[in-house]
Amino acid sequence: MVKMISEFKDGDRISGQFLVSNSAKCLNNAGAAYMNLELKDSSGNINAKKWDASESDESLFSIGSVVYIEGDVLKYKESLQLKVSSAKPVDNNDIDIAKFVKAPPVPKEELVKRFFAYVDSIQNEDCKKILDYLIKRLSPKLLDHPAAVSVHHDYASGLLMHTVSMADVADFLCKYYPNINRDILISGILLHDMGKTIELEGPIVFKYSIEGKLLGHISIMVSEIRRAAEGLKITSEVPLLLEHMVLSHHGSPEFGSPVLPLTREALLLSLIDNMDSKMVIVDKALENVNPGEFSTKVFPLDNRTLYKPKE
Amino acid sequence: MVKMISEFKDGDRISGQFLVSNSAKCLNNAGAAYMNLELKDSSGNINAKKWDASESDESLFSIGSVVYIEGDVLKYKESLQLKVSSAKPVDNNDIDIAKFVKAPPVPKEELVKRFFAYVDSIQNEDCKKILDYLIKRLSPKLLDHPAAVSVHHDYASGLLMHTVSMADVADFLCKYYPNINRDILISGILLHDMGKTIELEGPIVFKYSIEGKLLGHISIMVSEIRRAAEGLKITSEVPLLLEHMVLSHHGSPEFGSPVLPLTREALLLSLIDNMDSKMVIVDKALENVNPGEFSTKVFPLDNRTLYKPKE
Amino acid sequence: MVKMISEFKDGDRISGQFLVSNSAKCLNNAGAAYMNLELKDSSGNINAKKWDASESDESLFSIGSVVYIEGDVLKYKESLQLKVSSAKPVDNNDIDIAKFVKAPPVPKEELVKRFFAYVDSIQNEDCKKILDYLIKRLSPKLLDHPAAVSVHHDYASGLLMHTVSMADVADFLCKYYPNINRDILISGILLHDMGKTIELEGPIVFKYSIEGKLLGHISIMVSEIRRAAEGLKITSEVPLLLEHMVLSHHGSPEFGSPVLPLTREALLLSLIDNMDSKMVIVDKALENVNPGEFSTKVFPLDNRTLYKPKE
Amino acid sequence: MVKMISEFKDGDRISGQFLVSNSAKCLNNAGAAYMNLELKDSSGNINAKKWDASESDESLFSIGSVVYIEGDVLKYKESLQLKVSSAKPVDNNDIDIAKFVKAPPVPKEELVKRFFAYVDSIQNEDCKKILDYLIKRLSPKLLDHPAAVSVHHDYASGLLMHTVSMADVADFLCKYYPNINRDILISGILLHDMGKTIELEGPIVFKYSIEGKLLGHISIMVSEIRRAAEGLKITSEVPLLLEHMVLSHHGSPEFGSPVLPLTREALLLSLIDNMDSKMVIVDKALENVNPGEFSTKVFPLDNRTLYKPKE
Amino acid sequence: MVKMISEFKDGDRISGQFLVSNSAKCLNNAGAAYMNLELKDSSGNINAKKWDASESDESLFSIGSVVYIEGDVLKYKESLQLKVSSAKPVDNNDIDIAKFVKAPPVPKEELVKRFFAYVDSIQNEDCKKILDYLIKRLSPKLLDHPAAVSVHHDYASGLLMHTVSMADVADFLCKYYPNINRDILISGILLHDMGKTIELEGPIVFKYSIEGKLLGHISIMVSEIRRAAEGLKITSEVPLLLEHMVLSHHGSPEFGSPVLPLTREALLLSLIDNMDSKMVIVDKALENVNPGEFSTKVFPLDNRTLYKPKE
Amino acid sequence: MVKMISEFKDGDRISGQFLVSNSAKCLNNAGAAYMNLELKDSSGNINAKKWDASESDESLFSIGSVVYIEGDVLKYKESLQLKVSSAKPVDNNDIDIAKFVKAPPVPKEELVKRFFAYVDSIQNEDCKKILDYLIKRLSPKLLDHPAAVSVHHDYASGLLMHTVSMADVADFLCKYYPNINRDILISGILLHDMGKTIELEGPIVFKYSIEGKLLGHISIMVSEIRRAAEGLKITSEVPLLLEHMVLSHHGSPEFGSPVLPLTREALLLSLIDNMDSKMVIVDKALENVNPGEFSTKVFPLDNRTLYKPKE
Lengths: 311, 311, 311, 311, 311, 311
Prior knowledge:
Chain A is α+β, with helices and mostly antiparallel strands. The first copy, chain A, contains eleven helices and nine strands. Chain A has a five-stranded mixed beta barrel with strand order 1-2-3-5-4. In chain A, strands 6-7 form a two-stranded antiparallel sheet. In chain A, strands 8-9 form a two-stranded antiparallel sheet. The A-B interface holds A 165, 168-169, 172-173, 176-177, 179, 181, 184, 237, 241, 260, 262-264, 267-268, 271-272, 274-275, 278-279, 282-283, 286, 294, 301-302, 304-311 and B 165, 168-169, 172-173, 176-177, 179, 181, 184, 236-237, 241, 260, 262-264, 267-268, 271-272, 274-275, 278-279, 282-283, 286, 294, 301-302, 304-310.
């Protein structure tokens, strides 16, 4: 039977792909080795046991990998547990990603459409060339990438969702602040976090690549723009302005930007990024809070506890 | 002849109101006392001398006061100077404020209309009552007040301009972030800086009142809302939410907010306030900068120098 | 048998009120639900089990509530345990507070007497009126309130104890620093922490109220004074000075005061508050330390470990 | 005629000692060198000119030195000026210190009496021995020393005044906080700033000695106590406790104490020191401020401006 | 059988000295007391049980003590365990230190030789006298002392190793920076951490002494140099320069130096100390990391994770 | 007569190139315009007047430019002054740089030789290729560039001097810390500041380029290495390690490095850079200080004043 974890019932015989989110080799009272596992899909997680663990089980069930499992659901101390009868590895290309990663709140097709509508709206030729070059170079990862390091807090195409959402706000503000150069601002937004496709890697559970740790997505992306501009033989000031926007978009050295935003567009980009990120965090933090109560501590907001008003 | 300072010519005989922006009693080589003055109107400033200063001249020409002056324009070392022949004080009620304070970029009538349109758009009754009560209480100062301490950096109705501008952005974002309670957010924005009408005082050159220094506009306004709510016998949570938004709108203790924003609306208000203030600062800083050059150091932006792109 | 927890013996049959300081619903090996509890009174705490937990037991034994319990004391793994045979809720008004909260080191009656002696010693009429108004408004909570959020570190009437203790020190220092206005200083001290009666709530275990979290006791109290002054039609500078003292008494923004102390009396109040709070913390921290040894880390003193000299 | 500067009149012929508080060699229009001087005594200061400056005049009139001068008072541009006719150096031992340094608010004899009364009140023998040894070693400077680096902000015996003042407060608080060891606390207070007699040097205008800059008065005094204890063959814990109090009395590393106060007495000493220093600063800052007005910025209190209430 | 822990095998009967690194009195299911112990020698650690614990066992097996143990090695849940059959205390003088503390990477004899070669290379007589005096006073601890508080991270003679290592670097740099006074720099390095022999105490597991906590090794050593200089009747500036180097060698107040390095030699000493300490930390952190992987978080390097390149 | 400024004498008639270090258009008493100038060469500076300033003089004498001047030296108020009789611009290519910039303490030829000796000593092929590529790309500026923004504090080839000096120290330390990869460390040092040739621009007085301000020399150089590696088709980890070293060499975000040094070589590079920079600053600061005295405040060393020992 193929089922999402949240639908498991005592007595089910199950088969399908599962993400190993925790794994440890243990000894039972009789001294026999077994694997104590936590398995996940996008609907939930379940404890699992693989008794009589073999030599190879430890690497098969390595944390972050996806494994094809057959087994039986049973009840133990009021909780469901999966007793694994057989298991085999799944090739990265065969992973059924939709099973593990939450869908974005807006369908991916819609996001892709809006993203490319913004690309098409750019009239400055140098901006356009650089965008086309880098989108091609970093696709298709660009379109599926989550915005942050872990599926725990994110969903598929999160990077795209965040980018399009910022562009929407920027598009409105361009009308509001007449001195803003819309082509530069929108181009900067479309590019600003693309370096994350190199900074973070992994089939489902994303983690920092070596390059990501040693350079960070900001420096990676600055180099990418410069390289693109040279390859495209662009001589205008545009690449410099775009590099500066990417370099400064975290707002200050303590948050990872070695230079402060020094142009109107760079400053506005960093402010929109800050606003949009925080509103997403607040929405998540208050999602399951009852009216008239406080959330638990919200780490990325200085550990404050947020309040949901009574009505 | 009545003229703005920027139009003065060598040989003009001048009469009219002037703001004393600097003043010092000096001795000439012969040991005689004279007043060395800097006079201002909204068009510019000029050095002036009142020879044979009397006892009372020092208080007549106190810095920040408006004086009615008659005198002659002459040229000295390539600059124009005003030789004051007679001077008398101007009563606060007779000051021709329009002569000293820059007009806002949008006409005051337009700002007032938009401000009250936002008030009218509020549907929550408790928000409405509190707004009506406090707008009445703090008018007409509310409608003319500059946003900051000094006319050097500001214009008439600056407070109104800043408030309406934030409300415009908020109005758009309410559509964008569906969980926002628009009535609460817009009401908070309309109220958030009203305490400045008590914090700052003066006919033209604004400075901190004693109350402003000992309490600050944030604490003043929190008390005003509480007092209003009690007088209006409001028992809902609305006054608490509005007080919290005012109290937290500077974002953190180091910027004057003793509590962090803990509701969705409070956080968004502080982010919009931050964004709108910074964009105004950037516009001023880059106003007279040539393309391809940097501004001087911008104090309220951590002394950075801003860049205006080449085109 | 009615007994304090510290006097329980193996085999006792016990009845009486207990504070639930910890509570969890668990399953035994046989899959049956039971409540695992920690019960407290002012003498100590004990583990308790309520076997065969019913649906309603989870809310009955909610943390922070007081419950009337009958049961048997028994010994398990060298520790005493209470086996609960029956339990029922206690109405807030019926709680025997003296059983749960440590008595203050000085009897409450004595503290109340000294508190009102300070009130009576004030000669400035406006100070007097405001004090009378607010004491009446915030009594009787004012006289019983602990000084901090939890009985773990505090005793009944702790707020009164701290207030009277500061007033004693201030009274001496007024003689020492002749420029101090005693009426203002003593009034400020009597008022400074009264907002805690609104900030913290609960029958025994105090926790932050919604108002406490969204505004804090400082802002709450500033509004209270302003409201009192308006109701009393006071036109002197006294309310402003008292509001400023309350607003600034934590000494700096990082500790919750949005303005720095700007008057002699406000500065001295904040220094005495700091001194008296720290000396109380030191006394508690060294209470059970042997001469020649160090305390454990003291969190409110930057985690330092304090030393008790050998002699 | 011998007169204090504040009593100088146009036409006076003057002789006496003066402190050179500023000095520069200048050229007049004719190219001739002259000394442009500022002279001080405790009553005020005056501009002075020594025309036809010789080679040796530059070192004679070095800043901080005391010079015996004869000359004439005259009026120049509404101000008095002293035309120096002759000048000669004054030996350090012949300086009439009382002419230059403000008398303390309490007579020195009274301060000395109270200081030694505190010494006599100590009953712990080891404290007593160390005090006697170090007072003898550092007298008579100890009794005359100002508390800070410059006569601009201080008066003679300022160190003694500050020490006795702190001891008075401590004496009261010992009754209030019963766990305090009075002998240790009072001894620590008497010793805590004695290192300043080595840190600062100069006949009248005090400045940091080389030792003062390279070690600081805190480290100097810790070594002095240790050396005294060894010479006196004291084996109790007393010297260690006193050294710790001196070492920690600035309260934290950022203010110059490499260790935090870790004993009750060390913590109380640092709190009393902080309080007494701040109250002295406030008194000075508000000395010449009118009721209802603010002081200028007070540097040692984070540049705040202090308010003197209306009455 | 006498064996190092890493060589234990199931069934061995063992006797010898062991360091108690963890100890707890527990109850078994039958309610009988036993000691649950962790024992260490320099080769590793092992869990041990002493069944039927007597009253005195808790103090015998106090953490940090060395105990002579006889017992049997057995296998439990795949791990080895030592069943203690008898145990008795070991006198501090009889402890076989070499069994517990890792040998330094360079033999102690070699380190001692190089240390005294540096002492002999000093030509300034005052430096030489102070060094001789203090080395004699603080030996033999000086030669065996670890550099830090715990054997977990250190080895015997670690202090000597660190000192000689810094002297080697300094010796090279003296040639490189010609203005450095080699005698002063090398003397400062030889002295700079000697205070740790007083700050830390213990037979094997070192911990802070009372003096160490109340004063710190820096202040202790400054006093030692001053005392030495006085005893040796040295009148040159040398002791002051050496005291300053010790006092400032942590570089800034936040790291424990109340004065900043103000001489060339003091600054260079602090830079070499910083460099040598960090390189040692890096070596330890990367010791067991595979090429192409990151270390765990390194606490003394701001919790960064270090990278070992692929080859 | 062609002379360095320090050799000017009253009455000299002078011709030659001068750097305009300050320039202002002024009016004399008669209302006529003149240029008030400060001229510099590497030997010193002199005040100069160009009377009867023409329209074009203001741009001719722009600050930072080099001008060919003929004029007369005369004495005014005890100082020498140059009266400019004629002046004309100097083409950048014709500037006699050696006249304005101090020679390095080691001859440039020697520095170049040592620099290329280090390049030749690299055995890793990928390091070698990248070095060769970038040295070629950034020469000849690389060999002449000062290390910092202004000739006031620097000399010709300062960048080369600093680089070679660091390489010397690194070369020694590689022997000392055996785990260091010498090729990586030395290559990183040779590359680490090369971005300054793009960050700073100007014929003599260097200032930040637009690219320098918007990106900074660190980000510029990271992109250069990446571009080089791609052009050279290098696939090893070497470029990533070199980019990381450049990116992290300021040690922490507050000093401009967005990532902390995470490899052994990156950490050591940042430590050597810090040490060598500080020793150069100290040498300059103490250059003209007498033994037994303190320097003025040294800005790049936290404004401390340095002490030069008595001997």
